[in-house]
Specification:
By secondary structure, the protein is mainly alpha-helical. The chain has a domain of 42 residues. 59% of the residues lie in helices and 0% in strands. α1 packs antiparallel against α2. The mean pLDDT is 83.
């Protein structure tokens, strides 16, 4: 079995994290450790999406961190 994922897979993972975050966010969840973990996980997925896109030669985003 080959493990082959691309940036679109990471994007879908980020969307799943966002849906989980939306369902975890409620009046009684603001201080829960589980809600904070879900929030942290969403931001990790969102941040790493840039890395996945940057490393896809078909997109040509290799210079994304260099700035102007």
């Amino acid at each position: 079995m080959t493990f082959s994922e691309g940036w679109r897979d990471q994007y879908e993972r980020m969307l799943r994290s966002r849906r989980e975050l939306s369902s975890a966010a409620g009046p009684g969840s603001m201080g829960s450790k589980a809600a904070r973990d879900i929030l942290f996980h969403f931001f990790q997925d969102a941040c790493h999406l840039k890395d996945w896109m940057k490393n896809d030669p078909a997109l040509g985003f290799s210079d994304v961190d260099k700035g102007s």
